């Protein structure tokens, strides 16, 4: 019942956001914009989508290395399967499916593997905020003439996310490298909680700490951060390429600014980011870059398609090639299932 209500809420939000996205669109103008799109840039955008998953897989291997050896093809395939699932299922199910599948195939612990996804998200936040800050500096003169309300909201969002991201990173660092306070926590849990609950808490925390082990080695963490910046530059280049296909006046640094809005749009809990992604692009393109609304609507539709369709097709292809039971996609084991049954008291 709870899952049904969550899905219903996601569909309702998507419908509302799509209405906002389309309410002022002139479909004759949108169709005309779609017909003028340059296919060369669109093919390039699709190639950049595939490249972004190559970079994601490479970065993930850096974070997974302390847990044990992994194969690139497994990291790449499970990344595509996970993101493909998130593109069509509610609640970003692929974020749980991806570490579950890789852990099962490479013999790693699911909870520790899931912790690397949390670390990935923090690295993404650092990279996005860095690119946003750079865009605001490089485009200062241009942005003075743009919609101040939207720009102020972007700045406020960045200033709010930065300390939260830093606090989360510090928390994971403490989890990864400070055994003393963990021992104190475990002793307290053993005193006040039932034995089974205390054991489960200790098992989960220890596995999460293992998954954050990259934080203990600055060189490995720095390499993962560099890959994160490369990843988001590739994603921004895809956005820029789609903009060029429609002859939109959005510079490459401008795509960094637009990406910050798209990340917020995708964070809205709708299936596949539908609605949130589209309205975020339209709002950013029209308010910050003065783009015609019909051209912005057309570009948003195509950008979402170039991002989503290759991901779903390749993800489904890898799932079928590997004989993945599609029931796993609907409900994989939760990563908190630590799997160390033999250690249970």
Query: In percent, how helical is the residue content?
Result: over 70%
Secondary-structure element order, N to C: HHHHHHHHHHHHHHH
- Number of separate strands: 0
Please mark out the parts with pLDDT under 50 across 5 or more consecutive residues, or reply none. 333-345
Strand content: under 5%
What sort of overall outline do the alpha carbons produce when their principal axes are compared? globular
How far is it from the N-terminal to the C-terminal residue, by CA? 34 Å
- Tally of separate helices: 15
Mean pLDDT: 84
Number of domains: 1
Main beta-sheet strand count, sense and barrel state: none
Over all CA atoms, what is the radius of gyration? Answer: 21 Å
Task: Characterise the protein shown here.
The chain has 345 residues and is mainly α. It has one domain (2-324). Helices cover 79% and strands 0% of the residues. The chain contains 15 helices and no strands. The longest helix is centred in the middle third of the chain and has 30 residues, at 148-177.
Notable characteristics:
345 residues, mainly alpha, 0% strand, disordered C terminus
Task: Give the topology, please.
Elements: H1 2-22, H2 27-35, H3 39-64, H4 72-88, H5 94-106, H6 110-138, H7 140-143, H8 148-177, H9 179-192, H10 195-211, H11 218-245, H12 252-267, H13 276-289, H14 293-321, H15 326-330
